[in-house]
Write a structure and sequence with these properties.
By secondary structure, this protein is mainly alpha-helical. Helices cover 66% and strands 5% of the residues. It comes from Candidatus Magasanikbacteria bacterium RIFOXYB1_FULL_40_15.
């Protein structure tokens, strides 16, 4: 059935894949040992930026590959900093600046085929972001805080160079390898961190814990019975990636076993992360995958996914607790806190945040209080007054900072993406699985955004930008996508 798409080499079995996996861990080892050494870190970043700029002038697509590699393998983006400015931000600013200069002097540059409606939506959203940026400065939120809130949105700019660069076949293959390397490496890293804390080899406030918390921007929480939550910002991507993989497996044909392995690794990460909203979003996404899929195949894959989840969760809980717990009690507690938030501190704290957030929205309903806004509340455990920029309510945070008008503009972009994907699905009656998976991923992220700002986190924006690029392309790109999907793990035996 798929022999016509195969070549002598699969995309995955390539030295580049294993180089990317090795790079993932090398980056973290260097980051750990350079943590606190501001001069050495800054010098390292400076050298990388010089090399990056040179690569851009030599071959723009090489620089693009480096940027994409950092976005996927660089965690939250703060593993290396140049006097407080992250390597990710430096790479992004360098690439965009050089691209703007090149575009300004390149009379041949055209946005041929790029949807005008999308340009209008992005332009309107940009105006509200500029207004919110100004409001933040005027309201005294602090330049650093305002800029930090603006940076994630600025990654939408990558849509324009990416629209043209992504048409290259080698760039498409590199993205697939980078995604697989990201998945495998993240699973190993999360499991390693879980094991060292569960066994007592590492402990809270240890050097590794502090690096994980302050540099990798993660969280490590002891839930009891040897089970530790391992949370990293980039984990949000594994909900849509899991759904995309599950959707591909729902196609009625024989699939390579490595697709199931990739899905299992993604589920493993979601288990170790153990976020209620992520798991609920994943379940909602599974339901969405029924769209255009055969019921029998959808049910079979969905049941297999749930079985993998339970098997991995119970096994991890059993071994982590030394055989004293199967984890189902912990799972029940996390589920119960959804409708009874007072039984868990984090859920209860989130409910307390609603009042100060609503006060900000009432004071500035239309245009918001500006980026960098903060809320003040009393901690329910230690009864301390805390001021924070973390609202823990995604849509309400947008309404508070960029106003209801800005929120409407942002949601217009999200609904534009959904409508575009539905159109792609209807135009692809024979191979809709890829776009259905993306659709389920976007809807799942919309649900996740209720209690977590995933849609306007840097990683979330990059995900949305990638989907926008794919949806903005003409329908002929589907043939390239199908070819790449079949060649990911398979190769011809001829």
């Amino acid at each position: 059935m798929y022999d016509q798409f195969l070549t002598k080499k699969s995309i995955f079995w390539n030295p580049q894949t294993f180089l990317l996996i090795a790079s993932y861990f090398l980056i973290r080892v260097l980051s750990f040992y350079l943590a606190g050494h501001i001069i050495l870190q800054s010098l390292t970043v400076f050298i990388i930026i010089l090399i990056f700029a040179t690569l851009y002038y030599k071959h723009q697509e090489w620089a693009w590959a480096v940027l994409i590699g950092e976005l996927l393998l660089g965690g939250a983006g703060h593993l290396f900093e140049f006097f407080g400015l992250s390597l990710r931000t430096m790479l992004f600013l360098t690439f965009v600046s050089l691209w703007f200069v090149q575009t300004a002097f390149n009379s041949q540059f055209e946005m041929t085929g790029f949807p005008k409606k999308l340009v209008i939506i992005l332009s309107v959203l940009s105006l509200f972001l500029i207004s919110s940026f100004s409001n933040g400065l005027i309201n005294g939120h602090g330049a650093r805080a305002v800029i930090q809130d603006l940076i994630p949105f600025s990654f939408f700019i990558l849509i324009f160079p990416g629209y043209h660069i992504f048409k290259n076949r080698k760039n498409q293959e590199f993205l697939v390898r980078a995604l697989i390397a990201f998945l495998i490496s993240s699973a190993i890293f999360a499991l390693f961190t879980f094991i060292v804390f569960s066994t007592g080899a590492e402990y809270l406030q240890s050097p590794y814990y502090k690096w994980f918390r302050d540099t990798a921007m993660g969280k490590i929480t002891n839930l009891g019975f040897g089970f530790w939550r391992i949370v990293l910002p980039e984990h949000l991507l594994f909900v849509p990636l899991s759904l995309l993989t599950a959707s591909l497996l729902m196609r009625d044909e024989k699939h390579h076993k490595l697709w199931w392995l990739m899905l299992s690794l993604a589920i493993l990460i979601l288990i170790l992360n153990f976020s209620r909203i992520y798991i609920l979003a994943f379940l909602i996404g599974l339901a969405i995958l029924k769209y255009k899929h055969n019921f029998k195949k959808w049910f079979s894959v969905s049941a297999s996914v749930l079985a993998i989840f339970l098997l991995l969760f119970v096994s991890i809980s059993f071994f982590a607790s030394g055989g004293t717990s199967n984890g189902l009690g912990l799972l029940g507690l996390r589920a119960g806190s959804i409708y009874q938030p007072q039984i868990e501190v984090s859920s209860y704290t989130r409910m307390i945040l609603l009042e100060p957030i609503m006060e900000i929205i009432k004071e500035n309903p239309l245009f918001g209080a500006g980026l960098g806004a903060t809320i003040t509340f009393t901690d329910p455990v230690y009864y301390q007054v805390i001021t924070t920029r973390h609202f823990d309510w995604g849509y309400l945070e947008l309404a508070a900072e960029i106003g209801i008008f800005g929120l409407i503009a942002f949601m217009a972009l999200i609904f534009y993406i959904i409508i575009s994907l539905i159109k792609k699905i209807r135009l692809s009656p024979d191979y809709h699985d890829f776009y259905v998976g993306l659709l389920a991923g976007v809807i799942a992220m919309m649900f996740m955004n209720i209690t977590s700002p995933v849609l306007f986190h840097t990683v979330g924006v990059i995900f949305l930008a990638t989907i926008i690029i794919l949806s903005a392309k003409t329908h002929t790109i589907l043939e390239n996508i199908i070819t790449i999907l079949y060649q990911t793990f398979r190769k011809t035996n001829k």
